[in-house]
Write a structure and sequence with these properties.
The chain is of the alpha+beta class and 151 residues long. The protein is built from 5 helices and 7 strands. Helices cover 38% and strands 21% of the residues. A 3-stranded antiparallel beta sheet has the order 5-7-6. A two-stranded antiparallel ribbon has the order 1-2. A two-stranded antiparallel sheet has the order 3-4.
C-alpha cells in the first residue's frame, strides 16, 4: 500500500476479537497504518453527493478524482480517459460520456448546495469547485510558505 511518500507492506489486521454470544467482532488494525491516515494523506468523499451518482461509474470516478484536488488543475480529455481506465478505445466515443458524467457531478453537487462547475476548451477540462475545509487549510499553508526563487 502506498500513499504519497509513505508505503506499507504487511498485515493490515493485527487482531480480531469475537463475542460468541452476540457475534460482534472487533478488529484491531496494525498501528503502523496510522501514517497512511494522517489528515493530509487521504480525501474525504461527500457520500450524499456520491449516492446521487449511483449507477454512474464514470461520474463517481470524476467525483472522487476532483474531490482529491484542493484546486483542480486543467486536465486533457485524453489524460482523463487514460486515468479513469475507460472501456472506450476512441476519444470520440469517450468525449460525450465524459460530458454526461461531468454534468451528473455538477447536478449532484448543485442538489446538495456544493459548487462544481466545468468547461471544456480545446479538449482540456477546467473544473472550479470549493475546496473542503481541510483543503482550504492546505492551500492557506501553501500560500504562506516562502518559495525559493531561481537566480
Amino acid at each position: 500500500m502506498q500513499v504519497g511518500r509513505y508505503g506499507y507492506e504487511g498485515s493490515l489486521i493485527d487482531e480480531v476479537y469475537r463475542d460468541k454470544e452476540t457475534m460482534e467482532y472487533v478488529f484491531r488494525l496494525n498501528a503502523k497504518l496510522r501514517a497512511l491516515f494522517e489528515p493530509d494523506q487521504f480525501t474525504q468523499i461527500d457520500w450524499v453527493v456520491r449516492r446521487e451518482l449511483d449507477g454512474k461509474p464514470l461520474a463517481q470516478w470524476l467525483h472522487g478524482f476532483y474531490a482529491s484536488h484542493a484546486k483542480p488543475y486543467p486536465v486533457s480529455v485524453a489524460k482523463l480517459h487514460e486515468l479513469c481506465g475507460s472501456d472506450f478505445d476512441a476519444l470520440n466515443d469517450f468525449r460525450p460520456k465524459l460530458r454526461k458524467a461531468l454534468d451528473a457531478v455538477a447536478d449532484a453537487c448543485k442538489i446538495n448546495n456544493q459548487s462544481f462547475r466545468y468547461e471544456v476548451q480545446n479538449d482540456i477540462v477546467h473544473v472550479k469547485k470549493e475546496p473542503s475545509s481541510a483543503q482550504l487549510r492546505h492551500l492557506t499553508k501553501k500560500a504562506e510558505k516562502p518559495r525559493l526563487r531561481k537566480p
